[in-house]
Amino acid sequence: MHDKKDFLLLPLIEEFLVSRATRKPSPHTLAAYRRDLLAVARLVAEDPTTPLPLAALPLDALTPRSLRSAFARFAADRAAASVYRAWSTWNGFFGFLVADGVVPGNPMPAVDKPVVPPPPPKPLRGERTPEELLDAVVRSDRRQRDPWPERDVAVLALALCAGLRLAEMLALRVGSLAGRAGERRVDVAGKGGRARTIPIEPELDGVIVAYLESRRRRFGARTVRPDSALLVDRYGDPLRRGGLQYLVRSCYRRAGILDRVPRGAQLHALRHTFATRLAEDGASASEIMRLLGHASLATSQNYIEVTAAQQRAAVRANRTNRALGRLLATGGG
């Protein structure tokens, strides 16, 4: 184990960022890592008891006490989500130093972090919007260069009726669909390595079967082997992230519902619609958690709480309730 006094902080931060670059994060994400690391480091360096230039700040200045003080000042004018993100970045940084043998342990568990509530769901807006979307896409659009409604409906249905994430859909193989008629299921390689199995109802099964039959007609039976990608582009090649995102957005455009898609949601709006309808139809948080592959029950509970709030708002808006309120206000009997 190295002596921490041998190390200055800034070069170690650069080493950490280089190591993170191999994961291919976006430039925005890398910039956020750097910004969070430098902001807290600067607060440690500016501590009035032992002020130092940031470039001269040694690693051994980062004690649980100095980090707690720095994070307290960092949190003063920032949102909880920003503080949590910075805490996670520093936690990852110290994990990197421990793995590299630079420090014996990670001090971040001694630094409190805020509890950040899960973001609110972003389903498609409008009670009938999912049905309108499917109705529009199932019809071949002559304006398309190479219309393939069977494939497009299968993509939408996997998100709307099985709640799959974008990456999960791209990872599907033809052999991911298993089981006999009436007991069909799809095996999903979920986020964080959490595999799950989702039951497939006959309607969704029929959509997928129709898509695979259309694919055989286009490209031949050899393209639908069990190890083949389930979702392909119009050339028969596996769909990629950008292609899938473009496909979903083009479906929204063709259905004329772009104004009903929450900003930044795109395909995730379909997954949120699936979860929201589960909650509306009485599914428990644990059932939603299993079907959507959530890591935390709190995320699943969020759908139920939002649905309950919407129901209460609908009841509050009832005209009879408002009339009753006026009656009570005037003392009428």
Automatic annotation (TrEMBL):
Keywords: DNA integration, DNA recombination, DNA-binding. Transmembrane segments: none annotated. Gene3D superfamilies: 1.10.150.130, Intergrase catalytic core. Signal peptide: none annotated. Pfam families: Phage_int_SAM_1, Phage_integrase. InterPro entries: CB, DNA_brk_join_enz, Integrase-like_cat_sf, Integrase_catalytic, Integrase_recombinase_N, Integrase_SAM-like_N, Tyrosine_recombinase_XerCD. Residues 119-316 form the Tyr recombinase domain. Residues 7-98 form the Core-binding (CB) domain. The keyword DNA-binding applies. This is Tyrosine-type recombinase/integrase. It comes from Plantactinospora sonchi.
